[in-house]
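Support request, priority: normal
Reporter: lab tech (M.K.)
Component: structure prediction queue

Hi team, I submitted a job for Thymidylate synthase from Fructilactobacillus lindneri DSM 20690 = JCM 11027 yesterday, and the status page still shows it as pending. I've pasted the exact input below so you can check whether something in the sequence is tripping the parser. The sequence length should be 316 residues. Please let me know if I need to resubmit or if it's stuck on your end.
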Amino acid sequence: MLEDAYLNLAKFILENGQKKEDRTGTGTISYFGYQMRFDLSEGFPLLTTKNVPFRLIKSELLWFLQGDTNIRYLLQNNNHIWDEWAFKKWITSSEYQGPDMTDFGLRAQNDPKFKKEYLKQKQIFCEKIIDDENFAAKYGDLGLVYGSQWRNWKTSTGEAIDQIKNVIHTIKTNPNSRRMIVTAWNPEDVDNVALPPCHTMFQFYVNDGKLSCQLYQRSADVFLGVPFNIASYALLTNLIAKECGLKPGAFIHTLGDAHIYLNHIEQIKQQLTRKPYKAPKLWLNPDKKSVFDYDIDDIKVEGYQHHKTIKGSVAV
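Reply from support: The job had stalled in the queue. We restarted it manually and it finished. Here are the results:
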């Protein structure tokens, strides 16, 4: 099964990982250095042992590919996976006059009354982002995150580099190159973004008419984040392969600090009791030629059979 690579990762960390403190204060079971490989010819690697909302994955990737860094586009597409980082920017500003939201991530897990108030304040925040363009410009922008680094990397001379356009051009014109790399990790910008890039760099490889991609991810939230990352980079590989007239090859996912948060242990164990279904198939609108031309409805998965959702809180 295509999904076995992920399930084996989860088992491996439970059996071999060690407890480790982390920035969020939640605590993890962690293992350093692990690699998974997915053959994209076997199907699309969207996990089936729990429901993974593909609409969120595709809208986030399109957001990256547009070079956008403001969550307004995501909220307009009912995507809330980046809310917490923008919300933190708002509640720590001098303009925020609402109830105390300090450490809202941890407090919401342990205090039902606080969680209700937190969700209320976050809803107010999200509505203001959508309705007020000036407010969105001030508090919805996350800084130099993926979209900016991929499409608008700032150089020391004040110019900008579009890494995605450049790598596509190289795949088309010099497919044997070993320099087909996109990086999101800029040491100068690490302290000026809402969340320093977790998926730091990726490299493409062309052989036998197939396009493969390897991602290095410095920090990997195995329960919540990694299922999204697998599907997102598999989708990106398929999109670029299609534009370049290639078939999708393999997606190789290399993890640095691979961890399961302590408040996700039971969820992971529950997931591991489930038998995976056959992987779905990816459908891309055949009329779209460039990766920059796709809309939400141009990307679909077909035959996605899955088990029920398993919820878990995001550590911020």
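The mean pLDDT is 94. The chain has two domains: 3-67+161-302, 70-142. Let us know if anything else looks off. Ticket resolved.
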